[in-house]
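Title: Prediction job returns without error message
Component: structure pipeline
Severity: low
Priority: P3
Assignee: unassigned

Description:
Job completed but the reporter wants confirmation the result is attached to the right record. Sequence as submitted:
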Amino acid sequence: MGHNRRFRWPVSLAAAVLAMTAVACQPSPGGQIDSVLWYCQPAAHWVEALPLGNGRLGAMVFGRTLDERIALNEQTLWTGGPYDSNGEGGAASLPEIRRLVFDGKHKEAEALFEKTMMGRAWEQAQYQPLGDLQLLFPGHAFPTAYRRSLDLDQAIATTTYRLGSIQYQREIFVSPVDQVIVVRISADRPGQVSLSATLRGRTNSKADEEERGDDAGTQGASTIGSEGLDVVLRGRVAPWKLSADRLRYEARLRAVVEGGTVALDNAREHDALRIHQADAVTLFVAAATSFRTFDDISDDPGTRVRETLAAAARQPYSRLRDTHLEEHRRLYRRVSLTLGTKGVPDVPTNERFGLFAKGQDEGLVALYFQFARYLLIGSSRPGSQPANLQGLWNADMNPAWGSKYTSNINLEMNYWPAEVANLSECHEPLFGLVADLARTGARTARLNFGANGWVLGHNTDIWRATAPIHGAYWGAWHAGGAWLATHLWEHYQFTQDRAFLARAYPLMKGAAEFFLDTLVKHPKHGWLVTCPSSSPENGPGGDPAWKKYPDGRYDKPVGICAGPTIDLQILRELFDQCALAAETLGRDPEFRARARQAREGLAPMQIGRLGQLQEWLEDLDSPDDHHRHVSHLWGVYPGSLISPRTTPALANAARQSLRLRGDAGTGWSMAWKINLWARLLDGERAHALLRNQLGLADSVNIDTARGGTYPNLMDAHPPFQIDGNFGGAAGIAEMLLQSHGGEIALLPALPKAWGTGRFEGLVARGAVVVDAEWRGGRLVRTVLRPRVDASPRLRPPAGQLVAAVLQERTPVPFTRLSGGVVRLSLRAGATYEVLFD
């Protein structure tokens, strides 16, 4: 990720006061359930609120009793409109830039790169909040028996409390079926529900405008009005430097009451709905923008919102809730995970961090894992945009790093758990992004490199910008598209879906063709290398202090280089994958041969003077470099070029690199290291990093939080970034199940803290669903459910052997190989039970 910047969350004094007064907590009914987050006080900060989402609409629920705030997001609400980020192009200067790099004149090379190859702006568009749903409950300031919760299995946030003898309840969900936010407010006695409800837009503060550094300040002409008994929020997003167009948006609020009355109150600053003495009320919020595609914003948000709202409001609440539950559970219930003892203390979620730190609550790990799956379901569904830096949930008009799609680690990390955690459909929005980038990136490839195929560097936005940004230190790296293309092959590996592979192959081929056209021979070594490039966000010697100038540039050490290790690792795998895909589909024999020949000519991975895996062609790594990026270890994870079993010398060098970098870092950096140590088969080191990841971050002093996890289980970068959640979940799965290298490895990096446990529904490459149960660190049984015919190798934990394989209690033959590994023959749709000595 890019530079750090100061970040401010809005804080409500009323919420802080209420958090102190709501001292009488309602305990969890029937004991703690490990699919529920719950708390004894409302959220005082956004990073304590509870997230809901349906892939497109998002809500953050604070759970206040007097003045409830529900922060709203719509995934296509970005500044500006369609634009072309490319400048005139630097293809003509490319030979000179390469000469300067090879001659060691790196500063001169960076200066020429920034003069000729940068995009027309040093930044890209920014993801925006939609606004807030605000509810005012007169007289509800001092409740008792308070409890707010988020049930991951239901995707419903609930707030309950008592006022005197009356019990109040709110249920909130975002329906993936009916495309509305639903708020149900009820009491256990008739005629007791009275409140006012309205929508509020968001605008930048003066400080935000100054920090943004341009005239994009406000969100435009946002207005609150009414039509009939609907409160309507309309507006246009802030302008963007390179776009004459501005996205339009609309949100509507409607109330359906049971008993009592609802009326429009337009005597206040903003129109509001006033509900008086109802038995219950259901509030509906629908929202849309004029976004159709990345190059078309001609849609009519008003028509879409009115039709969506009308269709939802005609249905009874019970039906809305039931269809929502059915669709959410279709995805969520595919996987279960239990770690440690089944029972966990009946304490609020924020108090469980301390128990986990003492080794008394490994159940928090399982909850954290399922929370990440929940977030992926909520922020990335078929037909939606991909999950951005904050997934779907953003409160700030000037979000850190624009809340963009950062493709030098963060965007890819968002999807690391998608396949193994049995949420393959949630991967689809990323593939749609790749298809769009293949169009826009083809123009950048021609202009900047005179090359075929398509290219993406370290960032893009909803408008699919592909020109370099931020300066040469960041922008010279241009392997982001190649990295994204490897996700297409991963999806095929996990699903064995040949129809998908046929659609994905041209995108993979285009990413490879760009590098086949642009790789050059290093004049000193003769190896094929990328040039110019960089190792993402790092330079030799690490990442010292930096300075931001008024024009948006940064004072950084020189990073431009030829052939950084990450590039060559990604290209090795991409060329292999393209050749295998073409072979599987019976296509392009000449292209296959060209890709394989280029792969063989790439610069090798090297071990340096410190015993480390070199990050650059030359041995430039510093023993004092504790940079958060570990880009040169891509070949360990998410790649599969380096393994303790197949490349032990390189694996040892990777371990040394990790030791030198240290265990500290931002949330996503620690998550990456969890996966790396798991791939290196060190479960104890992976678990130690997971303990750091699950350290409770300070949600009050948000600017000073350094990594860890906020009380609502969201990752503390800081500020909140969702990639740490997704990367952490992928690391947990990697400790339990690995399937690279042509075999399925069971419990390959199991730490002692997880001596007893079970999982159901994880997926291995080859399209095999795996269940496992273990006690005392030893497997008791495993169940395999292949989705296609398969002949995988199965590796049990060290010290265990496969005793029998049963299909419907009937033994089936298997072949023993070396090291306890067995070869199985599996039939699609059958269920196989594996027993162990």
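Comment from assignee: result matches the submitted record. Residues 2-23, 205-219 have pLDDT under 50 and may be disordered.
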